[in-house]
């Protein structure tokens, strides 16, 4: 039986691993399909304290993993298929095998939100992507017009990054004002290769028959006017959806699926703690996820200490 199992290997999960490992709890970290979490898909992280010149997202996560392993954390590339948190021990099915644990830290993060269009799904990886840093440099996007959808920091960051490759980058947003932080918004809008298209929604990605992106159909939400914009790539950057489906009906969540923590990082299930983006719809920063991972580790440690008294 494990003492601590951590689901997720992003900032929250790996910080929880550092703390529980240093408490001699020998934590087991299950990475899921994206080791290092969403931060590994960011280029340079400029707002993580301690790195005045910024740090590559992938490198930051590798360093966190190394730090956790140095103190005895075990990091396994494995996916949790089902969980039963109704009693003690907590039971998990991990890649077909049964696993029991006294405590569980859910740090499973969030995935990319999709527009929900049929044509978007059909053209995924054929010009539709959710990660400019991962895919922006692909030959099919070189010197071509590209479209980014969204109005947050991600959309601004992706659009700015894509100006290295595309001939022009259209930033399509459903309102006439960006949600992004001032510095990111100003940087994007000052870039001569970025052209904002306000009050507009993507209603169709073309061309499904051709099997590649050739353009997008846009609708102006104020005038209902439609236009087709030629482009070779659609980069969707419209936020995230928490990865909490495993616990639906077992742990208290809000309508969007974010776990609702009770006291500190406690959830409504005994011995189950939560940290990071899967419980945070407000801050969603690397540093807040790390802080919440630390809190969950301390709460799990105290819970285990109380059990053994
Ligand atoms: P976000 O702040 O939630 O922004 C999502 C954007 O997508 C919003 O502009 C939203 O429009 C739009 N949107 C949502 N659903 C849509 C839909 N169905 N169709 C069209 N547009 C839709 O998400 P984010 O940009 O991914 O940022 C998440 C968090 O990470 C934020 O806290 C951000 O500060 C942080 N972040 C930081 C950095 C950095 O500092 N380097 C980089 C990336 C992200 P509305 O504005 O109308 O709601």
What characteristics describe this protein?
about 300 residues, alpha/beta, FAD/NAD(P)-binding domain, 2 domains, seven-stranded mixed β-sheet, five-stranded parallel β-sheet, about 25% helix, binds NADP nicotinamide-adenine-dinucleotide phosphate
List the ligand species.
Answer: NADP nicotinamide-adenine-dinucleotide phosphate
- Spans of at least 5 consecutive residues whose pLDDT stays below 50 are none
Q: Count the helices. How many?
A: 7
Question: How many structural domains does the protein architecture include?
Answer: 2
Rounded to the nearest angstrom, the radius of gyration is: 21 Å
The residue-averaged pLDDT reads 96
Order of helices and strands: EHEEEHEEEEEHEHEHEHEEEEEEEH
Helix content: 10-25%
CATH superfamily of the largest domain, by name, is: FAD/NAD(P)-binding domain
Distance between the termini: 19 Å
CATH topology of the largest domain: FAD/NAD(P)-binding domain
Biggest β-sheet description: 7 strands, mixed
Shape: elongated
Q: What structural category characterises the helix and strand content?
A: alpha/beta
In terms of DSSP E residues, the strand content is: 25-35%
Can you tell me the CATH architecture of the largest domain? Answer: 3-Layer(bba) Sandwich
Element layout with pairings:
Layout: E1 2-7, H1 11-22, E2 28-30, E3 44-45, E4 55-56, H2 57-70, E5 74-76, E6 80-84, E7 90-94, E8 97-106, E9 110-112, H3 118-122, E10 128-129, H4 132-135, E11 145-149, H5 153-162, E12 168-172, H6 182-189, E13 194-197, E14 200-206, E15 215-220, E16 226-230, E17 233-236, E18 240-242, E19 272-274, H7 286-307
Parallel strand pairs: 1-2, 1-8, 2-5, 8-19, 10-17, 11-12, 11-17, 12-13
Antiparallel strand pairs: 3-4, 6-7, 7-8, 9-18, 14-15, 15-16
Helix pairs in contact: 1-2, 1-7, 5-6
The chain binds NADP nicotinamide-adenine-dinucleotide phosphate.
